[in-house]
Amino acid sequence: KTRCSGCKEVTYCSKACQTSHFPAHGKICPAFQKHNCFLLHADAQTSRPPLDDIAGQLEPFHLQNYGTETAEIRELKRRLGWSGASEVGKFYDHAGSDTWYYFVYGQRGGKGEEKTRNEVANMVCGETRGDVAIIRSGPAGFDTPENFTKSALVNALDFYKTHSRDAVFAERERNRFGKRTGFDLSGVPSFDATN
């Protein structure tokens, strides 16, 4: 028997049966529904350790004001009750994109509140506490796909279990800048063109 790798709820008698049913199941499976934002919870949502159940830590969260940082922050504060929000990191996907990245907002403020360490976010943002919101973003002048699946985000986060966020980010920035300018930056050890 096999199980849907996305929702982990539907079982099939064989891999062939699962493959043939995917066109129908993919339309209703929560892991393959597209959203413009996901919350990554710090507190365990299941009994499994967070790094062993990344999908279980994610919740779709549709941003109505997607597209400008000020409006996104305002909405996160209002809808989640955060006293403040700001960028806590950004990371590229697992598939080699160099024209967009995942942008991570974290809660700021709330003096005296002890927030849980966010084990999954720590892989891609450094030391992070509390829930975070993840969207897609990118440098000006590049098309950024707004909506993405939970499955794509899980694959990207899972990638950083075995890859250095800093090394991947530097490589993708070199690639993007090189394409834009025509310069070969392959020998440059550290490069960040996001500013």
Topology (SSEs and partners):
Layout: E1 2-3, E2 11-12, H1 15-28, E3 34-35, E4 38-40, H2 54-57, E5 58-60, H3 69-80, E6 84-91, E7 101-108, H4 119-125, E8 132-137, E9 148-149, H5 150-159, H6 165-181
Which tags fit this structure?
195 residues, five-stranded antiparallel β-sheet, two-stranded antiparallel sheet, 33% helix, globular
Gyration radius over CA:
18 Å
End-to-end separation:
50 Å
Strand order of the largest sheet: 5-4-8-7-6
Overall shape:
globular
Q: On the 0-100 scale, what is the average pLDDT?
A: 86
Proportion of residues in β-strands: 15-25%
Order of helices and strands: EEHEEHEHEEHEEHH
Low-pLDDT ranges: none
Number of strands: 9
Structural class assignment: alpha+beta
Can you count the helices?
6
Main beta-sheet annotation = 5 strands, antiparallel
- Tell me roughly what share of residues is in helical segments: 25-40%
Summarize the structure.
The protein is of the alpha+beta class and 195 residues long. It is 33% helix and 18% strand.
Detailed description of the structure:
The chain is an alpha+beta fold. It is 33% helix and 18% strand. It has six helices and nine strands. The protein has a five-stranded antiparallel sheet with strand order 5-4-8-7-6. A hairpin with a 7-residue loop joins β1 and β2 (11-12). The longest helix is centred in the C-terminal third of the chain and has 17 residues, at 165-181. It is globular, with a radius of gyration of 18 Å. The model has no long low-confidence stretch (mean pLDDT 86).
